[in-house]
Model the fold of this input.
Amino acid sequence: MLLPENGELVTVAGAPEAPELGPGALAAARWTWARGAPAGHNTGTLPQSNWSFRPLRGVQNRAGVVGIERVATVPGSDQQKLLTALADGGGIAIERAEFALHAVEA
Done:
């Protein structure tokens, strides 16, 4: 999972640990963040990447980007659908946490 920090995407989490993304994967992640559309493996944008990136969407804005390594799932599988659903819920949760933080600061 990559989240914006000071105008740049930063890897904040991974399973089992946060991976070191190469230049091609980072380019796909940045494209996803900038355009709010999937990029990387099994997409029409930067398909040579070993990672597939999807935007984490909140209710009002994008919250970040999630990357799935090519070997982790089979496109169209139930596992892929579950990961997409979790990413959608995760984007909303991140956005809510940011709203809560801003409310506490105010």
Remarks:
- Helices lie at 23-35, 78-105.
- The two ends are 28 Å apart (CA to CA).
- Residues 59 and 83 are 18 Å apart (CA to CA).
- The chain has a mean pLDDT of 87.
